[in-house]
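Attaching the record inline, Q. Sequence:
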Amino acid sequence: MARPLIISDCDEVLLHMIVPFGQWLDETQPVSFQLVGNDFAKAIRDKVTGEPVSPEDIWRYLNLFFDNEMHRQTPIAGAVEAIAALKVHADVVVLTNLADKHNAARKAQLLDHGIDVPVFTNQGPKGPAIQAILDQYAPSHAVFIDDLAQHHGSAADMVPHIDRLHLCGEPTLAPHIACGFEAGHAHARIDTWEHALPWLLSRL
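Structure, as predicted:
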């Protein structure tokens, strides 16, 4: 008999990302990181000139971080326990927007924190990737969790029949990002696992 399926993002949902990324930049690179609002494009600045770095350099720094510094990431409060509780009732997979070369490292990273789940890597909108996962698992019901409103919009377009939870567990970022629930693309916006878990269990 088919089980329900949870499809969860990783960064800022299961693991902190921008805080350790910014700390690594400040400690080791010729740039500083200060996120004002949600404008990531201007958050990384040259330490000498104060000018924002180019988009190409942003991607270069992100790739360096995910190549070598993923050990700096720590779990969002309650995430490990919540995933363990959800696995009793549903299959759980992670859908993360990383290059495919980082798939094995992401799976190992999550396993080190006690989250043993299949990992799917993706680039761009997540709707098509969610559809492919649904085709593979054929669940009785599915719930998608992500911290970015645009991915809920993509999911709402491609797979409107699944439940969608907008969850951003990074408190320095959560107040500043666009809300998928307010946009009508997510069924709820809950930024703590303490409160998200009961909602998720009720949807299964």
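The CA atoms of residues 14 and 79 lie 5 Å apart. Residues 18-72 form one domain.

More tomorrow.
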